[in-house]
Amino acid sequence: MYAGRTKLSIGRLACIGPIQNTLLESPMVELIPSQDKVMQILQRTGAFREGHFVYPNGKHSPHYFQMPLAFRYYDTARVLAVALSRKFRLEKDISSQLTKVAVISPSSGGIPVAFGVRDALNAEQIYWAEQEHGERMFRQYVNQGEVNPCIIVDDIIRSGHAIEETVDLVKSLGARIIGCGAIVKFHSAPAEVEGVPIKSLVDFDARMYDSGDECRDCKAGTHEEQVRF
Ligand SMILES: [Zn+2]
């Protein structure tokens, strides 16, 4: 009897070591990873790419973010969304209004971010906008007065144009913006929107050339890739 119990406790003790180590190494414990760590995740998943890219607006760049590649892995998506949610929770105007908050995505790319942030904050509502006839809209029958105070989240903010359109949409429905953020924000994006600072895990100083004439990679004659967004 006694021997059996000893064996059991040894077994338990033997388990504790590896479990603790796993927890310590788990990215979930480190709730706001450094910018370098986030960039490593984006590079590893293929979301951050280096090369010679041409955007639909004709601009050339030596780097490109295809963020859904990071969000295709559930664990990575969770780490990134939880980290962003921590930045929101630090804001008193947000934490004091939870759970009566809406998390809003300006487009399809931000939907997994919005679901992850909603989950981490236990916010009550989620919405995402879509482009219809060149206009950013929610689905039909979302009515005036139904939308909780909003946190707008996206996977990446480049110019801030999509965010600004979403702000107008949200305001037209009578809702207030209490937060805004993305996993990656370019330096070219505005620092705040509606008096609310734009949060991000990575502030990226994107190198952009207005045309091929100015592009260093064009001059070097390297192969160019057209990107769709
Ligand atoms: Zn070029």
Blueprint (SSEs and pairs):
Blueprint: H1 2-25, H2 35-44, E1 48-54, E2 60-65, H3 68-71, H4 74-89, H5 92-95, E3 102-105, H6 111-121, E4 125-128, E5 130-132, E6 135-137, E7 150-157, H7 161-172, E8 177-186, E9 192-193, E10 196-204, H8 216-220, E11 225-226
Parallel strand pairs: 1-11, 3-4, 3-7, 7-8, 8-10
Antiparallel strand pairs: 1-2, 5-6, 9-10
The chain binds zinc ion.
Strand order of the largest sheet: 4-3-7-8-10-9
Q: What are the secondary-structure elements, in order, as H or E?
A: HHEEHHHEHEEEEHEEEHE
Gross morphology is: globular
Count of helical stretches:
8
Brief summary of the model shown:
The protein has 229 residues and is α/β, with parallel strands linked by helices. The chain has eight helices and eleven strands. It starts with a helix and ends with a strand.
